[in-house]
Structures are given as C-alpha cells and as structure tokens.
Design goal:
Rossmann fold, eight-stranded mixed sheet, 14 strands, about 20% strand, about 300 residues, alpha/beta
Length: about 300
C-alpha cells in the first residue's frame, strides 16, 4: 500500500526521500492555506502541484451530468436527487455515481453497486454513507461507489443511458461532464471566490444553483449573485429555496432542543449552524441547548 504520514512531517519527508514533486490531493481549503502549503514545499526544494481536469477526469461513452459545489454543505445531495427525478421523468435510465467515502477495507470497496437496502448491509456502510445512499434507493435509483472509478464507470455504463455524478465536498468531478451543475450557498457568500477547488468548480459551471435563498440575508444573496456573474458569466443561474420539513414539528414548540447537525457542514464546511438549528428556530423551540459542557472523548478533544 501507500504509506501515510502526518502532514507535519512533510519537510523532513521531502529532504529524506529527495522528493521532486508534492501534489495537493484534498479539498475545501482556503486559498491562503493552499499557498501556505505550497510555500512549505517550495522552501524545502520540491515542486508543488495542483492537478486539473485533464489529469484527473475520466471520459465516459455516455452523457454525464455532474453536481458539485463551492463548499461542503451547499446542498449537492438534494440537487442531485432533483436532477435524477427530472431525468427519469423524461424517460432516461440513470445511474448515480457517488464521490468516494473510503472508510473501510479498500480492497473490498473496489466497486460497489447499490439497488436495495440489503446492499447497504452487504457493504457494511457507515452512517454517513447510509445518509447519502438511502434517499437514492428510496427513489429507485441505482447507485455506484467505491475506490476504482474507472471500473465503476465501466460497470455503470452497462446499466443506463446517463451518468449522474454526485460530488463530495467542493471537489471537481472525477468524470468529464457534459453538463456541470455547481451549487452555491449565500450563507457563506464570498467563499465561492476564496476556497480551493470550489472556485474552479464555479468557473467551469454550465449551471449555477444559488441555494437556500429562503433563509439567507438579502445582502448576502446580492453579493453571491454578483460574484457568480463575475466568475461564471455564461452559466445559467437558478435561485432556489431549500425548505425544511420536520416530522411531528409540533413537538418542538416551547421545548428545549438538542440539535445534532450534519458533521461535514460544520467542520470543514465552517458553518456555525445548519438545517437543524434553522428548523428548531422555525418551529418555535424555547431554547437550543449548548452541548459542549457534556462532550466527552474525541468530540471534546476537537
């Protein structure tokens, strides 16, 4: 396998192993952070590289629609589900290919095909994977994931008419897209111009979705709209609400509420709150409890 070292050891690794080139291979990073890493690499004698579409995207023999974003937590998943609904209503057979979440034994995750809930158990899916996969299965969508995306593509192409790429974080797609849809978030207006590789996604967009306009401030909506027109002037702009629905919402009114939010949106997505807090406020919670005094273990440590 490929050895994994703490990033703090990078200067020593470059010198010890006479490294010629260092490639940054993760996402949702402030531009300043990226250049800080580049400076560390350059200062220790190696070249620093960001890999672009020609080096990273595979070409399908089928049409590909990709759904990506400028930051984690913009609303890619719900947008992907809407796109699949539209395509199926037009009579197309689609397969969703999901950005990888490689948490388990990678040798057993070369390629995975999901069609029923039994497949979730068969592949020992994590809670995070189930959260992403189950809504597609509920819609009757065939979903692929894994780690070998050439093999995944080859198998998916045997099943369907159109490939739908369901992106992760703010990464660019793994497949060359015929229609590239990018989701933005007015709650974090300005981030579309200051995060890697989200800005690249926006500049490549054929369609830009400005999501969550029903809960964002007007000045942030206007700022985001201006930035979209600046970076993607030829893209189609869709301004979309992201309405919240809650089962048994009457139970919330007047109560003290503990909100469990989507993790990635608040961690590397850097949101101070998510849909859970918005829902609690919308449905009249008396108080949102601060859980930090009760945190233990790794949650407390971070």
């Amino acid at each position: 396998g490929i050895p994994i070292y703490p990033e703090e050891e990078l200067p020593d690794l470059i010198k010890k192993n006479q490294i010629d080139q260092v490639i940054l291979a993760y996402s949702d990073l402030p531009h300043q952070y990226v250049m800080d890493k580049a400076s560390i690499v350059l200062a220790n004698g190696a070249d620093f590289r960001l890999m672009g579409p020609k080096s990273t995207m595979l070409k399908s023999k089928l049409p590909v629609v990709s759904i990506c974003a400028v930051r984690t937590g913009c609303g890619k998943s719900q947008t992907t589900r809407k796109v699949t609904d539209i395509l199926k209503k037009k009579g197309y057979k689609i397969a969703v290919i999901r950005h990888p979440m490689p948490y388990g034994d990678l040798k057993k995750q070369i390629w995975q095909r999901y069609e029923t809930y039994a497949d979730l158990d068969r592949y020992n899916c994590t809670i995070e994977e189930r959260e992403e996969y189950e809504p597609h299965l509920d819609r009757g969508n065939i979903l692929y994931a894994g780690v070998d995306y050439q093999e995944i593509l080859r198998r998916a192409e045997e099943d369907v008419d159109i490939i739908v790429w369901d992106g992760g974080n703010n990464d660019i797609p793994f497949y060359k897209s015929d229609l590239h849809i990018v989701v933005t978030d007015p709650h974090r207006a300005g981030h579309e111009m200051t995060y890697y590789p989200g800005e690249a996604n926006l500049r490549m967009a054929d369609v830009v979705v400005m999501n969550k306009i029903d809960t964002a401030d007007l000045d942030k909506i206007n700022l985001l709209r201006e930035n979209i027109h600046q970076l993607a002037p030829n893209a189609i702009l869709i301004e979309a609400a992201s309405p919240l629905t809650v089962d048994h919402s009457e139970l919330i009114r007047g109560k003290k509420v503990l909100v469990v939010e989507d993790g990635p949106t608040l961690t590397h997505g850097e949101m101070k709150y998510g849909a859970g807090v918005v829902a609690a406020q919308k449905y009249g919670a008396k108080e949102i409890i601060d859980p930090r005094p009760y945190a233990i273990g790794t949650i407390k440590d971070t």
